[in-house]
Amino acid sequence: MATFQILEIKEISECYNIIKELGQGSYGKVLLAQNKSTGGAVAVKLVRKDRTQLKTFLMELSLSITLSDHPDIISTYPIFISTMDHYVLTQELATAGTLHHLIQSEVGIPEDAVKRCALQISWALDYMHGRGLVHRDLKPDNVLLKDKDCYQIKLSDFGLTQPVGTYVSSMSHIIPYMSPELCDLKEEEFLILGPTIDTWAFGVLLFVALSGYFPWLEAMKTDVRYQVYINWRQSPDCSPPPAHWERLSRDAIDMFCNLLTPCPSSRHPVLSVFDYLNIPWKLNILEYGTNSAVDEDELVIDIVGDN
Questions:
Q1: Could you say which of 72, 137, 141, 157 is catalytic?
Q2: 50 an active-site residue?
Q3: Cα–Cα distance measured from residue 143 to residue 228, given in angstroms and rounded to the nearest whole number
Q4: Is pTM beyond 0.85 here?
């Protein structure tokens, strides 16, 4: 367990000058603030006490501090602040926002930038997996940017992170980054947590960043796009690839198929992307085929929110 300084105050304004809000969710919000003592700019994450148990917050804080020594993981300062309504953690500021806000619908981001993200995210995930941890919430919102060209990115948000081997139950809702074994969980069923859950989410994240489209909305047989993908995998040489896969090079398709293998034990590790960084991932636009098997509009990335 990480060690940290404990500070109890009434309002966050006692320690920080609040500049603006950077993001908000059901559990709290993130603020851009200036530390009154040092004058430095920081990101302050406020977690609502009425939505989060103290034990859960302290676990996130401890993990965040412990993982801060990796260059591709956001640094969290060793201080625990408690206000009347919030638990607070303070992190280094990622001045260029999140990967989510950089991705352009139907376009994605430049291939070179995607590859830089792939390199750094895979390093961060491999570091976590090597320490027996699974992130569990990998998506573009949780990839922070120090610059708009993705030369320096930071993996963040460890609120759902748990040790390998933990029994996890079904989630309250399904998002496109969830693996099929998670999507298939019924109430009162449990799954033994493993790194391959992150591997799947990593594959979806790279696909989204490269194309500006979700490959599917739910990794379930009831999702037409996902079922098309599963059917195509069985005989890839006998039918055209699913919508938007035809825009990828043969090598890139192999990479995605390795990461997005429905069977968890057959998924390649995240560092397998290293084998594909020096080859093209996209075909020239003149080489694109047409595939009208699914409605493209429903696959478009929502740049306002994807969960």
A1: 137
A2: no
A3: 29
A4: yes
